[in-house]
Amino acid sequence: MTTMIIRTFVMLAIAGTLAVQSVGAQGAADRTKVLRAAADALGMVRWSDIGSATTRLPGIDIVNTMEFQGSGTSEVAGRTFKTEYHAALGYNPLAMRVEVTRTPQDGGAAQHTIRTVRDSYAWDESQIGGGLVPGKGTATPAATAVQERLLELWTLPYGVVKAALAAGEKTVVSTEGGVSVITFPLAGPLAGVTVKATLDAKNFVTKVETRPDNPARANLATETDYSNYADRAEVLTDIKSPGRIVRRQGGRTILDIEVKGWESNNPYLVFPVPANVKAGR
Amino acid sequence: MHSSRRTIAAAAAISLVVAAVVVAQEPARRTNNAPPKPSGATPRASDGHPDLTGVWNGLGDNLNGVPNQIANNGVLIESESSARDLHSGLAITVFPRNTTRALNSEEAERAAALLRRSGSNRPIYKPEYWEMVKNFDHNANEEDPSNNCMPAGVPRGGIPSYISQQPNHVMLVYPGQGGLIATQTMYRMVPLDGRQHTPLQELDGTYTGESIGRWEGDTLVIDSWGFNPNTWFDQIGGYFHGENMHVVERYRREGNTLTWTATVEDPDVLLEPWTTTPRVALLNPRANAMLPESQPCSERDLSHIVTKEHH
User: Which of B95, B97, B126 sits opposite A133 (nearest CB)?
Assistant: First the structure.
């Protein structure tokens, strides 16, 4: 009797282990399939067939630098502004420069800001590239803004796919309401923030929610909707970009823009860190 | 019935043999764009320096194709599961091809344009030139100075296809080509006799500048200035320069490979010097290797281009 119980226990343990391995393998396969589908929908995967009679290179993630402009509205401290939004960004190195011109809808002077981040540095520029050449603008360090600015980069559709791929086995895919959902943790300065991205039936990233594990970092809790995907580049690339971006925080819509153009041909965009920012001055 | 089985068996055997022959005849395909590893001894000239003489066109290694252009711009695809950016060291995600269909020309051009621009090794211009550089690249079909059969210049010409090394000079030959950079044949005679540069203000700018060579150990260093501003200094990117550009090239032969880098200084437009990603050429091993005649450069495509797409 004892032998039989032990045998049954061992068999159950083996079956359980195999089941877990099977679920794990299935999970990995699903993750690979869903992330590939999302990357393909955005046009992120390319290989070369030119001059390659003797080569057969695999595909790689070709998204590095991008630039887009849009206009719409934004809300700051309860005030609504007509907003012109211009973003230049790169994933290698990790950097983003956001130039925003806000005109209060209830009257008042327009506000113009240039917020930049690169790796672990954040600063505000008085003009594009301010602070790099003496006498040509200033750069004001904004060290406390690093996380918030990096979050904007990682919550763009391409950032979501890149970060989910980088998170490896920590990335979980599931199905909610018949569509794929990708959940993964961010790393580096954004460790402790979880991203939940929802894909539509065409595998485009349509909703990105971020949740910090610490209530003190509530500024990192955001929701962004992306819709109306198309190739918006003047130099066509087959990379699809969203035509509308709506970002919410704390139940309020803080940005709602229609995208006018999205250059995706890895344009020349650079983000050198001014010496005074490196020195923390 | 038995006859039928024998026929099937014979057909199967023949199929296997044919398949084996086909597989054997198909050239091995590279699934990476890693530079070739050196092999063989490095020959020495009578003065003891490495002898760079030879035809450096790689012989069928596709060094002029887009895969190598991608490597030139700093993206190293090491295998079917690994790639990285050489400048930053950052890993790049690799995906298997999900179709056996060949890309059509439009897809291939767009892919090539993206692949060649995805690396991180970019010269840092002064901010007032950022828009200009971006627009040059954006409108490269019209703006690229080499598109109208002009010389590629230095350092855009890259590694010469032929080098003749003499005790007091080296001769560098760059055949003209269509495709990636449609440009005319270019040659440079670079003295190695210890002379000094002519003062910059006394030089009329040229496409290849005034070049003077010297040996630093086993590395041939060619120092050039005295350029005109009519070239871009890399194959992509709209990287213009001024008349005060100073270029230092380094050539190092190891066995049957030649590694080349160029550092560009131009304080008028650049915030800091910029160095190319190292490029590697393979020696043509044939004893009777020759450079074929360059086709006459005649720009015929430009007037038919209706979009801004380029590779």
Answer: B126
Residues on chain A touching B99 (C-beta within 8 angstroms): none
- When divided into structural domains, chain A yields a total of 1
Q: Is B61 on the interface with A (CB under 8 A)?
A: yes
**A195 neighbors A155 (Cβ within 8 angstroms):** yes
Judge: B32–A48 Cβ closer than 8 Å, yes or no.
no
B108: nearest CB among A40, A50, A61: A50
pLDDT in tens, A173-198: 999 999 999 999 999 999 999 999 99
A57, A64, A129: residue with CB nearest B130: A129
Q: Where are the domains of chain B?
A: 54-63+124-290, 74-120
pTM (2 d.p.): 0.89
pLDDT at B127 over 90: yes
B311 CB within 8 Å of a chain A CB:
yes
**Residue numbers in B near A263 (CB within 8 A):** 138
CATH number for the domain spanning A123: value is: 2.50.20
Residue B108: partners with Cβ closer than 8 Å, 6 or more residues away: A48, A49, A50
Q: To probe the interface with A, which of B72, B110, B269 has the most A CB atoms within 10 Å?
A: B110
- Least CB-CB distance to A52: which of B67, B110, B179? B67
| Inside any domain, residue A27 | no
Does the residue A12 lie in any domain?
no
- pLDDT 10s digits, B70-97: 888 899 999 999 999 999 999 999 999 9
Instruction: Confirm or reject contact between B65 and chain A (CB < 8 A).
Output: yes
Inspect the interface and report whether the beta carbons of A58 and B77 lie closer than 8 Å: yes
Q: What is the pLDDT of residues A37-80, one digit of tens each?
A: 999 999 999 998 776 566 788 999 999 999 999 999 999 999 99
Strands A244-249 and B83-85: unpaired
Whether residue A51 is contained in a domain is answered as no
Whether chain A has a CB inside 8 Å of the CB on B32: the answer is yes
Position B16 pLDDT exceeds 50: no
Dihedral (C-alpha) B276, A270, A238, B302: value to the nearest 10 degrees? -60
Residues in chain B with CB shorter than 8 Å from the CB of A45 are: 95
Distance CA B93, CA A212 (A): 26
**Domain boundaries, position A193:** 61-278
Has residue A21 been placed in a domain?
no
Residue of B nearest to A130 (CA): B127
